[in-house]
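call fold(seq) -> tokens
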Amino acid sequence: REARSGGNLTVFGRGFDGVRSVDVGGVEVRIITQSATEVTVRVPTLVGGTYNVSLLVDGKGRSNADVAVTIPVAVLSVTPDFVSVAGGANVTVVGYGFLGVGGTRSDASVSE
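ret:
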């Protein structure tokens, strides 16, 4: 499964009517909806990568299935299009998955 940070993730299975908590990448997340066969949660702010999903069910314990979610990484735009080789220009990279939701960074480097 793939989901963006801050988006929704639905896990399908059986016996979910007693889900007490859900962790994504070791972070407890908010349960939005749940039924006996599915649980929908809000994905936490995580950098791009693959994270285990774990459910704690009343009377049954923690899930043991290998369920994971992948947070994708994508660059949507880079501005400006051209900069001086002398350096010193501010470059804005817009996308998702590389710093979490709303992150900024001023110490990044670029190499060829």
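The CA atoms of residues 3 and 50 lie 10 Å apart.
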